[in-house]
Amino acid sequence: MPYRIHWEGHGVYRRFYGVVTVAEFFAAYQEMCRDVRYSGIRYIISDYLECEPAPDLTEGHLRQFARLERLRFYDSPDTVQANVATDPKVLGYVRYYESLRISPYCMADFATVEEARHWIASHPRHEWNSPPLRPVQQQPTTHS
Asked: Distance of CA 63 to CAs 51, 77, 113, 119, 140, Å?
């Protein structure tokens, strides 16, 4: 498979390399979504620096993937997605996907993984900050 998925503390880092077909791109998506950690992720970093799209990848496929993400929205509604790419052809696909506005995720593209991580860290979502754990307040018991 021309991809690797690495689960991190609050997100997932997906690295694609070589020529990526529609089937392989979809397999990476399914593998990510099937994992039990997916429902709690805060970010997705998709690293496309070392890959190129296979000829079978079309705009129609990108629209289908965006619709699939919309269906999975409630699994992880506060997720942000950072796409990392520099190749003009790959950037064309990435920016087309981002422009669809079908996917529910807040998205942006970057030239480096470091820039992507900085963006994720500087855009915290309110839902990411869990309320502090508070002990249950015990009511004084009265004896009759």
From this structure: 20, 19, 25, 25, 59
Domain count for the chain? 1
Q: Which pTM was predicted?
A: 0.80
Domain encompassing residue 107? 3-124
Other C-beta atoms lying within 10 Å of the C-beta of residue 133 = 5
Contact 20, 51 (CB under 8 A): yes
**Helix/strand/coil percentages in the chain, nearest 5:** 40, 25, 35
At 119, which helix (H) or strand (E)? Answer: helix 113-122
pLDDT by residue (tens digit) across 33-54?
A: 899 998 888 899 999 999 999 9
Helix (H) or strand (E) holding 102: none
Distances (CA, A) of 45 to 73, 107, 135, 141: 17, 10, 36, 53
With respect to residue 119, please indicate whether it lies within any of the assigned structural domains: yes
pLDDT > 70 in the chain, percent: 78
**Average pLDDT of the chain, as a whole number:** 83
CA 143 vs CA 82, 109, 136, 137: distances in Å: 60, 65, 21, 19
